[in-house]
Amino acid sequence: MQGYIPLILQGALITIGLAITSLIVAILLGVICALGKMSKIKLLRLLCQAYTSLIRGVPDLVLMMLIFFGLQFALNNITDFFNMDIIEINPFVAGMITLGFIYGAYFTETFRGAYQSVSKNTLNAAIALGLSQTQVFRYVMFPLMMRFALPGIANNWLVVLKSTALVSLLGLFDLVKATKTVGEATYQPLLFALIAGAFYLFFTTISNLALWWLEKHYSIGITKAKL
Fold first, then answer.
1. Sign of CA dihedral 91, 51, 108, 46
2. Overall fold of domain 5-116+153-217
């Protein structure tokens, strides 16, 4: 391990950074597409439906390769057209866009289901009490949506976190790439594969604790039925 710890820690930081930024992209895209699927504009609904159906019907690894090489191919065509030097996509940015685009489809269904689960009568009662639209969303709509969406958000986040391992195939020097490189250099691939697994287990454990706190926070006021 001597001399390799900083390399592995650097890979771990890149992995968690990629997971968080990809999550932000996926949530933003999920919110936009969820609103699109509930829109009164038929074309917008069809586009969002096609997006979610395509993403959920094709394996993540295949999509990752298609999006990454597709983006690079399109960028190469643009630079050739304008007689510019070739621009290579940063592996971190490529991974963030790819994971965000893929898992945005799953967040779309999560947020759409959460929105539809909120009782319209509850919202109408809040409006009848004199709350503004902003206050209704902040104090009624959003907390109730989070209550319904948290299980899906938790599951999607853990999948995004573990899927960052695939981005090493795009050339990113993340945790998997770092431990693989060190394992090959020291002829101990099994040991460093176990170390990579331990890091991911640590990340998911911390995530589960944070999600457990969020679930308790947004479950305030719910009385559990006694058996």
1. positive
2. MetI-like fold (1.10.3720)
